[in-house]
Amino acid sequence: MTILIENAVILPMTGPENVIENGYITIEGERITEVGAGKPTPGAYAKIIDGTNKAVMPGFINTHTHAAMTLLRGYADDLPLQEWLQTKIWPLEAKFNAEHIYWGTMLAIAEMIKSGTTTFADMYFFMDEVARAVEETGVRGVLARGLTSGRGSDKSVEENLALHKKWHGKAQGRISVFLGPHAPYTCSADFLHYLSELAQKEQIGIHIHLAETKKECDDIMKQHGKTPIALAEEAGLFKNKVIAAHCVYVTEEDIKTLKKYGVGVAHNPESNMKLSSGVAPVPAMLEAGIKVGLGTDGASSNNNLDMLQETRSAALLHKVSTMKPTSLPAYQALEMATANGAAVIGQEKEIGRLVPGYKADLIILDLDVPHMTPCYDIYANIVYSAQASDVLTVMVNGGILMENRVIKTFDEKKLLAHFRKIARDLLAG
Amino acid sequence: MTILIENAVILPMTGPENVIENGYITIEGERITEVGAGKPTPGAYAKIIDGTNKAVMPGFINTHTHAAMTLLRGYADDLPLQEWLQTKIWPLEAKFNAEHIYWGTMLAIAEMIKSGTTTFADMYFFMDEVARAVEETGVRGVLARGLTSGRGSDKSVEENLALHKKWHGKAQGRISVFLGPHAPYTCSADFLHYLSELAQKEQIGIHIHLAETKKECDDIMKQHGKTPIALAEEAGLFKNKVIAAHCVYVTEEDIKTLKKYGVGVAHNPESNMKLSSGVAPVPAMLEAGIKVGLGTDGASSNNNLDMLQETRSAALLHKVSTMKPTSLPAYQALEMATANGAAVIGQEKEIGRLVPGYKADLIILDLDVPHMTPCYDIYANIVYSAQASDVLTVMVNGGILMENRVIKTFDEKKLLAHFRKIARDLLAG
């Protein structure tokens, strides 16, 4: 079955100059077969989508989130970090069971599809439920079981390995499984070392929080006499494919280390702003040639999963933090949300660009709305003006997950009603 | 004709504790007549709106913009300020005629209505056209003719006074007219002094840019030996009702001055970020008791007119700039976008809150969407998660301007098509 999208502005994300003002894309099965200007060769298309006044681009890749934390959206905000965690987040999290995680992830996926995210990298628990939600809804996921050292760590590592065995490469290749050591301040150096070797032996990627807050860096420095990045390097972590979330506090030496090992950085500007973590030196990391993607973090610290907003926030934040209006121009910001994100999760040869042979993970944006008019510069319009609601249609692996704002793989309104009941019971229980 | 909105979450914005979980509002003519919990007294309502799974709140008040600059949206971005102004913005602006300004303002109003803004404070030229657009579309506007000293200043002042005479208090009271001295670096001290006296004599408010960039402050200090705020005070400006846009660079002394005279500050976080102007000390100004509202600035420097985004950006920016997650909590940010905004433009007894006797300037938000689920805290959800597209219905002065996302006072799609033609001709011409 071949799908044709025609008469559209096309952003292949293979370079700023490669935008096609009026072009087409064909999709066969899971993959893109053609991308071009003008009209395609006439053929028998199973479905033709008119792209007039619309733009087609790669779906967003959310390189760091905790999807089921939608259960905690708006539950506690505007508090000091430790009070927020200890009196609010952790006590409610302790009540979560497998069902909660399934529905929390389903809600997150609904929000992600409606805002154009086609892939997300997740770290949480009851990850089998997350995999089930990914399988059912049609999105792409990179899933890791959060791991901490100490009591219960053996069981969690077993769960992570079982998750890998059961789901890695499954759901038409839409699911990957990584190991999820939580952070240097919750994992001992020995545990990190053990996981590094395990990951190498089993050829599994690693997803970890690194250098998120000043307190973390100060504590690690006091305890180990080195930075979190240096500690992770010493534990052998970077011999693996690594998603390093946050990297707010990195030294020049750390930047060299991240570059040397090809570590992927997941930058979460809105979470870092809302929790007052700080401003990651993203322009410097990009300058050094580090792969930096964007993440929303969980909905308890953002409080949404909207990658268009995250992209805009990144572009604005780094302009003011460097006091240079030329920092993180629109194309570069959009690249972080797409092609760079693919590189961060190690799938740069499969997704993140609109290129023949790549998986058809793409979104169609409405340009016929006031805030996208006029359209002198499509990149500037998307980064600085577009809204989640401009995402009309979402395709993953060649399958249509949403068409004209209607989710096709599950009933959105039923999900919301059911979720409200779950949230009520959770607070009452 | 009485309108009833029932079964809704109601945010009167008279204090965080005054949210009504399930309530109603009645509107008669231009004004709110009742706001309460539960059900209203049975009566003959000309129109009943069901607010189930919806929230009702005051419309947003955009305290600083240049509406017609939608003509320049995405025309030039990510450039150093002087290059941006001199090689891009000013040359294209020089081509604008009255018709451009009319259509640019119409596009801005379409975007504002669709994102829940009911009032905007504008400073630009061909302001008669802006007034016409405000009259036709049903929104509320505070309009000022931009004034600079030097060649043509007499004519501009005459235009501003003629605008006042023709439009102030007109369009069912929806239009106010202010004087618009552009800024201390484009207006001589004598000219500011002259306008201060003129404003006092004619009882007209003043809308001015103040202390936006470090360069402005350095230049004014070099030339006059004082800060822009001190210069404005000395010119007698603050004896009038004043909207001071930006106030990014203010000293402790300046803060005392702004407080002493009750000057209203229009904070434009996204413009200040995008142009690398800096971070205004908003928490300190609020702490000092200064009236601080929010503005989007023009679409050439933002690049949108979405007040929900502006509110979120303010809340996030000040948390990271102060490194305190308790800075600018959700309710306070939302107050800036509504009740505080009303105070900044001097209309705090008429709009910005949902209170009997106030003008019915309100919006209805959809809560039955993934990103607003669950709803533990309505303020946090609106500030950190809501999107412009959640705004279903917009009412100004008791008139319905948009209902269920359809603009009632003009044809949105026709406007967009016409605007695209104008933008093409403008670039070609």
Task: Describe this protein with a few key phrases.
Urease, subunit C, domain 1, 429 residues, globular, 16 helices, eight-stranded parallel sheet, alpha/beta, homodimer, 17 strands, 2 domains, TIM Barrel
Average predicted confidence as pLDDT of chain A: 97
Helix count, DSSP H or I runs of 4 or more residues of chain A: 16
Major interchain interface with per-chain residue totals: A-B, 71 and 71 residues
Using only C-alpha atoms, the radius of gyration of chain A works out to: 21 Å
Beta content of chain A: 15-25%
- What oligomeric assembly is this protein in? homodimer
Structure summary, number of beta strands of chain A: 17
Report the helical percentage of chain A. 25-40%
Q: Please give the CATH class of the largest domain in chain A.
A: Alpha Beta
Named CATH architecture of the largest domain in chain A: Alpha-Beta Barrel
The major pleated sheet of chain A works out as: 9 strands, mixed
CATH superfamily of the largest domain in chain A: Metal-dependent hydrolases
The helix/strand class of chain A is alpha/beta
Q: Can you tell me the overall shape of chain A?
A: globular
Pick out the low-confidence regions of chain A: none
Cα separation of the termini of chain A: 49 Å
Overall tally of domains of chain A: 2
The CATH topology name of the largest domain in chain A reads TIM Barrel
